[in-house]
């Protein structure tokens, strides 16, 4: 029936608005609109942000004139009461009413600000400074902390969170100014089609639909008192009307005639309305249309319908009875025929409308981060403390040494500590390694000690930046300087190494949760403190003011305490001015100044040393740990010997490693008991020390190769050898791995044979055996 009425509006160029919870009717209406009239369509749907990255946004707290202020506030409260009527009470209503009354006084406030007033004392004080109503200020400053915060505050938060936690709903409500003006729409030739089919739960659909109906109602009231004939008719259709607030429907049906607004509501059965409202419907409407209905609905309208109750409950599809007030009254029994061609595509017109009236929005912004997306410690406070202890001590430690330290911080027994150490950190996470040491002190004594694994250094304690967001050497060194200082006080740090696609704070600092019930200072072994510090290092904030503000907002919205690190008083003042310009109070962030020379002295910056490395290069570099031979790195690395050689050569070319030499002395005795010292020198790769710059003492590290035959072979094939490779430093096993390599196989096989090996390939496998001498 609605399609017939709306089709008349389209053909007569009459303005209308449709609210459809299920979407089918909205799509049919889009199919009926001719191409020549597509500019009139305003399509509102929660799903457009997912489909096309745009959405028509609305702000239910937007006020255009002072006279509308408290009507807007009460409409919001009533919309919430409609969906939560079963758990509604006077305290909850008083809290939400005072919250809405506060926000309608504050320009550009949104529904999410109501959550901040309820949950955040800092934001509450900021908002109350902008409110003129003394009663509202008294409620939030005095009554709320004393009487409402615990129970009503929790209840209000839960109800608002249920709505705002839906990403599409958060997207459509996240605006200070609505992208469409219902006042202009009612006076222009627009057709508004609201499709709520992707809203999820009935509660969300009810809330949004009621809000939109109320926004139209607020604008329609402005037509009251105008002379008859000066306003054009505006038609409104509400499908599945039982989902929306009865008070809003009652106001539409009862008063909107004075605004020359024609309202049509549709529902499956009268039973879905509250009983009091259902009894009023006959008096509120001028025309009733009944298709096949249930017995109760038929009995309610039997006095006005031209057919019996039995006929009303058994009519065939498409047939309907109607009654219309007037003088004389009109009644009848008719048949509705399909008029919509559902083969026609509706999405093109919907997309055209959204492109014209929607606002670009990313749905990902409103999706709550998962644990993998949201940076957080992947270990418990107790486990993190063990890791930090091993890292700070930088030595092998026994179980007893670890427990002796941990027991001072956590109320745990030895069994719990040893379980975390062996079962979790060693066997499950592989962040700690066991070492067996034998002491020869008269009797062989085996001692077990623990050290951090390479995985722990690569993941939790890496200080090598990767990727494009690595930043300047000063930027990186400052982050790692702060990180090292915090780690010494056993705070867990997560730096942004530039290895993830999403942007993160330069440094996140997690603190231990102090146990309140304890007389001594001890910490919770399982749960971290809710206080999280986000550090943003700003080398030159004058070059990107908008990014500084955005850094604050993204961290503040996540609940972090925000710290800015700058390098001069000038930059500090610039950050403060930028925040003031964007209405961000000084109490919401902190600024610290660190002089660059302090970073250079404490952080030991070497411009050549801080490099952007790939993941494979970082792994090899961390295995190197000061010095190592190609063979030792090949043995520990998780990839082929050929890849190891390529990475080592690249690190050397970039100045991250240098060639050096190691000397091994073996003491032997001849038959006469004389000591014969034998020295073996081998080329190795080293990383520069803290007090040594790259390139210094390079000559002292250039040693002759030990294996002359290998050198001769390589010199004979110099023109064919890939630049930078030195295969002579690989072990036999490493060369064996390279035999099948298309690029390096020939050299590897020649070297193996030159070292006295038979080399042949069988069934795709390389087999070697020593030649008999």
Please work out how many helical segments DSSP would assign: 31
Taken together, the total number of domains comes to 4
Q: For the CA atoms, what is the radius of gyration?
A: 38 Å
What fraction strand? 15-25%
CATH architecture of the largest domain: 3-Layer(aba) Sandwich
CATH topology assignment of the largest domain: Rossmann fold
DSSP summary, beta strand count: 22
Average pLDDT: 79
How are the strands of the biggest sheet laid out side by side? 2-4-1-5-6
What about the largest sheet? Answer: 5 strands, parallel
| Coarse morphology | elongated
Termini separation comes to: 102 Å
| Low-pLDDT segments | 604-612, 667-671, 688-724
Structural class: alpha/beta
Helix fraction, binned, reads: 40-55%
CATH class of the largest domain: Alpha Beta
Please characterize this protein's 3D structure.
With 773 residues, this protein is α/β, with parallel strands linked by helices. The protein has four domains: 2-335, Rossmann fold (3-Layer(aba) Sandwich); 381-457, Arc Repressor Mutant, subunit A; 466-603, no CATH class; 714-773, no CATH class. The model is unreliable at 604-612, 667-671 and 688-724 (pLDDT under 50). InterPro entries: P-loop_NTPase.
């Amino acid at each position: 029936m609605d399609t017939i009425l709306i089709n008349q509006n389209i053909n007569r160029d009459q303005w209308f608005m449709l609210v459809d919870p299920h979407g089918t009717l909205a799509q049919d209406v889009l199919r009926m609109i001719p191409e020549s009239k597509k500019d009139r369509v305003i399509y509102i749907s929660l799903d457009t942000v997912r489909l096309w990255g745009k959405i028509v946004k609305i702000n239910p707290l937007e006020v255009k004139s002072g006279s509308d202020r408290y009507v807007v506030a009460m409409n919001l409260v009533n919309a919430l009461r409609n969906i939560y009527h079963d758990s509604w009470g006077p305290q909850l209503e008083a809290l939400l009413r005072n919250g809405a009354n506060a926000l309608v006084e504050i320009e550009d406030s949104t529904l999410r600000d109501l959550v901040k007033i309820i949950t955040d004392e800092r934001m509450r004080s900021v908002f109350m400074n902008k409110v003129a109503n003394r009663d509202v200020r008294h409620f939030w400053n005095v009554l709320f902390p004393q009487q409402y915060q615990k129970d009503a505050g929790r209840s209000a938060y839960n109800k608002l969170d249920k709505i705002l936690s839906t990403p599409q709903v958060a997207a459509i409500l996240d605006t200070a100014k609505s992208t469409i003006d219902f006042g202009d729409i009612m006076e222009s030739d627009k057709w508004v089609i609201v499709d709520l089919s992707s809203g999820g739960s009935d509660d969300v659909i009810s809330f949004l639909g009621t809000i939109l109906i109320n926004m139209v109602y607020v604008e329609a009231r402005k037509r009251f008192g105008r002379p008859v004939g000066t306003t054009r008719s505006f038609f409104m259709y509400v499908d599945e009307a039982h989902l929306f607030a009865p008070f809003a429907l009652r106001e539409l049906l009862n008063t909107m005639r004075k605004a020359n607004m024609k309202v049509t509501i549709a529902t499956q059965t009268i039973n879905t309305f509250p009983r009091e409202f259902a009894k009023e419907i006959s008096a509120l409407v001028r025309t009733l249309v009944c298709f096949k209905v249930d017995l109760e609905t038929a009995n309610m309208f039997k006095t006005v319908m031209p057919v019996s109750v039995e006929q009303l409950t058994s009519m065939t599809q498409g047939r309907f009875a109607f009654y219309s007030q007037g003088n004389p009254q009109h009644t009848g029994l008719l048949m509705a025929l399909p008029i919509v061609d559902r083969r026609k595509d509706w999405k093109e017109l919907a997309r055209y409308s959204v492109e014209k009236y929607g606002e670009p929005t990313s749905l990902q912004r409103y999706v709550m981060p998962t644990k993998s997306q949201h940076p957080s410690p992947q270990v418990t406070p107790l486990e993190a403390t063990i890791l930090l202890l091993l890292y700070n001590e930088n030595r092998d430690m026994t179980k007893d040494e670890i427990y002796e330290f941990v027991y001072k911080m956590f109320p745990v027994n030895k069994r719990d500590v040893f379980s975390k150490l062996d079962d979790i950190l060693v066997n499950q996470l592989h962040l700690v390694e066991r070492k067996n040491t034998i002491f020869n002190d008269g009797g062989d004594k085996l001692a077990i000690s623990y050290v951090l694994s390479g995985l722990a250094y690569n993941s939790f304690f890496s200080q090598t930046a990767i990727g494009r967001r690595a930043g300047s050497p000063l930027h990186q060194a400052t982050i790692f300087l702060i990180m090292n200082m915090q780690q010494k006080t056993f705070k867990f740090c997560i730096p942004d190494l530039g290895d993830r696609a999403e942007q993160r704070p330069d440094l996140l600092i997690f603190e231990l949760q102090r146990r309140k019930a304890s007389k001594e200072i001890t910490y919770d072994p399982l749960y971290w403190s809710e206080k999280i510090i986000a550090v943003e290092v700003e080398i030159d904030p004058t070059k990107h003011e908008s990014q500084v503000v955005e850094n604050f907002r993204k961290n503040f919205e996540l609940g972090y305490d925000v710290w800015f690190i700058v390098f001069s008083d000038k930059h500090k003042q610039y950050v403060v001015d930028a925040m003031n310009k964007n209405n961000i109070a000084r109490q919401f962030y902190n600024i610290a100044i660190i002089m660059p020379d302090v970073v250079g002295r404490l952080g030991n910056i070497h411009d050549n040393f801080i490099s952007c490395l790939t993941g494979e290069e970082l792994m090899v570099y961390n295995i190197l740990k000061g010095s190592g031979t190609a063979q030792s790195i090949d043995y520990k690395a998780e990839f082929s010997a050929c890849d190891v050689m390529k990475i080592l050569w690249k690190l050397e070319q970039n100045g991250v490693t240098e060639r050096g030499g190691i000397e091994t002395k073996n003491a032997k005795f001849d038959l006469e008991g004389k000591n014969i010292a034998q020295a073996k020198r081998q080329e190795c790769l080293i990383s520069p020390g803290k007090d040594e710059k790259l390139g210094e003492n390079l000559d002292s590290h250039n040693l002759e190769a030990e294996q002359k035959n290998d050198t001769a072979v390589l010199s004979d094939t110099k023109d064919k050898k890939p630049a930078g490779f030195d295969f002579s430093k690989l072990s036999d096993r490493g060369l064996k791995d390279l035999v099948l390599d298309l690029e390096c196989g020939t050299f590897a096989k020649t070297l193996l044979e030159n070292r006295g090996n038979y080399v042949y390939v069988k069934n795709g496998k390389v087999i070697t055996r020593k030649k008999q001498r």
